[in-house]
Amino acid sequence: MQIDKSQISGLILAGGRGRRVGERDKGLIAHKDKRLIEHQVLWLSRQLDSIFISANRNHKDYLSFGYPVISDGDIECYIDNAHSDFAGPLTGVLSGFANSQNEWLFVLPVDQPDLPANLIQIMTDYIHRNELNNYVYCMETESREHYLPLLINRKCLAALIDFITHGKAKISEFLSLLNTGIFNPDLNESHFTNLNNIDDFVDLD
């Protein structure tokens, strides 16, 4: 399968409740002299033209970066009366499909700032070179599987709607139901570091 980057929209997941950072909006916390969302917007904009930010609060702050800001409530175009308040990353993915016209979504957590600068090219090259034909991809290292970042095709939309409709939210469970392509692009585990706790941030605003 050959995936052109023009077929991919980037989705930054910044809609979490931030329980482990005192319920602060994680994307707006400073890290290495920039707010975390600034790192991710800059990283993604160097690779893709189409970008969405999924956020459930502080929309004005996120809109200042010049990209569309979407929210979990956007899934109501697919699921009537859905519980869509801080409902987890898969709800963010579904809202991404509700707003994007592209076939593929590259889903990026706001709290993973150490990914390789050309990761999307690494992924698409690997898929093409190894003649993979899945409709959803994630990566692994020698240590473990990483379910995010995620590259997912619109053909998974029906399965995603059904999963969320049945009140499920765990991303690993969802991916286990699909023919997920999980591959090791020879990246170090440190590339996938998550800033989960307030002590993980280098500096604070």
What labels describe this entry?
Spore Coat Polysaccharide Biosynthesis Protein SpsA, Chain A; about 200 residues; two-stranded antiparallel ribbon; alpha/beta; globular
Task: Explain what the structure shows.
By secondary structure, this protein is an alpha/beta fold. The chain has one domain (5-198): Spore Coat Polysaccharide Biosynthesis Protein SpsA, Chain A (Alpha-Beta Complex). Helices cover 26% and strands 19% of the residues. The chain is built from 6 helices and 9 strands, in the order E-E-E-H-E-H-E-H-E-H-E-E-H-H-E. It has helices spanning 36-45, 59-63, 89-99, 119-129, 157-165, 171-177, and strands at 8-13, 30-31, 34-35, 51-54, 69-70, 104-109, 136-140, 145-153, 181-183. Strands 5-4-1-6-8-7-9 form a 7-stranded mixed sheet, sandwiched between helices. A hairpin with a 2-residue loop joins strand 2 (30-31) and strand 3 (34-35). It is globular and about 40 Å long.
